[in-house]
Inverse folding.
C-alpha cells in the first residue's frame, strides 16, 4: 500500500548502513569460493551434477541449451551454471556452519534462502502476491462504490473529484506488487530494474497524489502545474536507472526525499483535517512505520524461508485493507459534501 511502501526507501538506507560490513561475508569465504570454482569447472558438487555446466571447447553447452534441459515450470527462471553452483555451494557451506555452531551469513548481499520449485524467496513472493490481491480487492471495491452505490452526475461521472487519480494509483500499485513478486521469485538484471522502476513510479505518483489531496487541489490547471515537473523528474530518474546506470545510492536519496515529503504531508493533513476517517490514516502511517522496523532488524531467514523482509511484506497486507477503506470513506465524505452543495 501507499504509505507503508513509502518507508521502504528510508529504512533501506539505515539497514544498508547497519549491514554493509556483513553483506558479502559468505561469498568471501575461501571454502565457498573454492566450491563454486570447482563446480563451474567440473559441473558437479559431490554427487549432484548440472547439465548446464557441461561445455565444449567453444564454450557451448554439450547437451543443448540449458533451458531445454529443465522442466517446463523452471525454464523461465534462467538458472544457469553459475547460479546453480552458487546456490548448492551456499547450502553445503551453511550446513557446515550450522554443524560447527555458527549462524547464517549473507552471500552476494543476500541471505541463504531455500528454493521452492525454483522460486528464490517463496514467502516474499507469496506475501507480495497477497498484497497485489489486496490492492485489487481494494481498487475493485472502490470502483463499485463510486459507480454502483454512490449517486452519479448526469454524465454518469462520479461526484468524487479524485476518482481518476485513485484509479491510476490502484493500477500502479498492482504493477509494483506484481514486479515485487517476480523480482523475489528470480533476481536478475531485468526483474531488478522492473521492480525498482515500478516502485519509483509508485512513489513519485503517490507524492503527486498526496499534494493534490492534502491541499485539496481541484482545478485542472493547478493539477497540471503540480504534476508536470514531478512527473518529468520521476520519468527522467527511471530512464537514468534503466539506460545509464542503476545507481543504488542515488536512487535511495531520491526515494528518501519523496518518502519524507509524503509522510509530512499526510501526517500534517491528518492532524489538521476534520475528516471522519482520519484515524485510519494515522493507523496506516504509525503501523507502517513500526512495521518497517523489521527492515532494520534484518535477521536471517528462519528455516531458510521467513526473514525480516518477508515478514514486512506480511504486515502490509492488513494495512492495505485499512488504506483502501480510508480511500472509500474519503470518496463518500467528499461526495456527500458536494451533493449537499448542489441541493
Amino acid at each position: 500500500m501507499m504509505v507503508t511502501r513509502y518507508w521502504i526507501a528510508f529504512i533501506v538506507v539505515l539497514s544498508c548502513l547497519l549491514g554493509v560490513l556483513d553483506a558479502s561475508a559468505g561469498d568471501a569465504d575461501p571454502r565457498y569460493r573454492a566450491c563454486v570454482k570447482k563446480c563451474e569447472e567440473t559441473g558437479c558438487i559431490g554427487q549432484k551434477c548440472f547439465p548446464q555446466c557441461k561445455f565444449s571447447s567453444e564454450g557451448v553447452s554439450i547437451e543443448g541449451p540449458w533451458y531445454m534441459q529443465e522442466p517446463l515450470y523452471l525454464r523461465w527462471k534462467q538458472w544457469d551454471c553459475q547460479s546453480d553452483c552458487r546456490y548448492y555451494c551456499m547450502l553445503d557451506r551453511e550446513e557446515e556452519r550450522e554443524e560447527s555452531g555458527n549462524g547464517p551469513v549473507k552471500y552476494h548481499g543476500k541471505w541463504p534462502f531455500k528454493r521452492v520449485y525454483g522460486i528464490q524467496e517463496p514467502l516474499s513472493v507469496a506475501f507480495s502476491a497477497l498484497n497485489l490481491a489486496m490492492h485489487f480487492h481494494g481498487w475493485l471495491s472502490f470502483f463499485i462504490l463510486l459507480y454502483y452505490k454512490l449517486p452519479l452526475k448526469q454524465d454518469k461521472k462520479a461526484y468524487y473529484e479524485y476518482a481518476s487519480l485513485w484509479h491510476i494509483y490502484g493500477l500502479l500499485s498492482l504493477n509494483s506488487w506484481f514486479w515485487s513478486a517476480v523480482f523475489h521469485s528470480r533476481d536478475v538484471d531485468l526483474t531488478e530494474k522492473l521492480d525498482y522502476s515500478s516502485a519509483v513510479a509508485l512513489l513519485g505518483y503517490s507524492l503527486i497524489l498526496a499534494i493534490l489531496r492534502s491541499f485539496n487541489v481541484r482545478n485542472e490547471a493547478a493539477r497540471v502545474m503540480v504534476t508536470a515537473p514531478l512527473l518529468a523528474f520521476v520519468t527522467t530518474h527511471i530512464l537514468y536507472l534503466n539506460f545509464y546506470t542503476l545507481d543504488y545510492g542515488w536512487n535511495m536519496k531520491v526515494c528518501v526525499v519523496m518518502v519524507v515529503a509524503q509522510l509530512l504531508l499526510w501526517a500534517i493533513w491528518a492532524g489538521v483535517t476534520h475528516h471522519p476517517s482520519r484515524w485510519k490514516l494515522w493507523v496506516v502511517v504509525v503501523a507502517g512505520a513500526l512495521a518497517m522496523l523489521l527492515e532494520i532488524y534484518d535477521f536471517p531467514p528462519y528455516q531458510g524461508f521467513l526473514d525480516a523482509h518477508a515478514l514486512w511484506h506480511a504486515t502490509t497486507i492488513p494495512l492495505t485493507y485499512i488504506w483502501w477503506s480510508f480511500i472509500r470513506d474519503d470518496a463518500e465524505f467528499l461526495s456527500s459534501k458536494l451533493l449537499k452543495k448542489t441541493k
